[in-house]
Write a structure and sequence with these properties.
Length: about 160
């Protein structure tokens, strides 16, 4: 577990860009935290750093958005899932397995609503409010994380 302190949105965006610079196909990143804590801003900066030119919007109503990546050396697609609307159920309807692929980089907001459908191999980032601008990001590597996720965390946080 590692804690990162963000003093403003630009710093949170920089953390996302640094993670994107180290990510690889098959990565699963889970973003947890209350509404307005910075999860979507993080995902947007992450996607932009991957080279996505079009606007990255929270897929709250569509649940899943797929973005083709220009650098197919990293992966073919960035998959952004917002599971907020699945709080009352329905996770089985989106077939998460199809997105958890070595050709995809998958980022899930509100993963607790689809937890039963996720593998044990992921990076989890918790967003906590400290003040109006400050956030604490707690980075947790899954207990059963593979060597690629371990390397990703190590490279990102160095």
């Amino acid at each position: 577990m590692k804690e990162l302190m963000s003093h403003n949105i630009e710093e949170t965006q920089r953390f996302a860009e640094q993670l994107a610079n180290n990510v690889h196909g098959g990565s699963l990143i889970l973003l947890m935290g209350p509404l307005g804590s910075g999860k979507t801003a993080f995902a947007q900066s992450f996607g932009k750093a991957l080279g996505i030119k079009r606007a990255i919007k929270s897929p709250t109503y569509t649940i899943v958005k797929e973005y083709e990546l220009p650098d197919v050396g990293k992966a073919q697609r960035f998959i952004h899932i917002d599971a907020y609307r699945l709080e009352e159920g329905g996770a089985e309807t989106i077939d998460i397995d199809q997105y958890l692929d070595q050709n995809h980089i998958c980022m899930i907001e509100w993963p607790q609503f689809v937890q039963d459908y996720l593998p044990d191999n992921y990076i989890e980032i918790h967003f906590d409010f400290l003040s109006e601008k400050q956030r604490k990001l707690t980075v947790v590597l899954a207990e059963n994380a593979d060597v690629n996720h371990q390397r990703l965390i190590r490279n990102w946080l160095e």
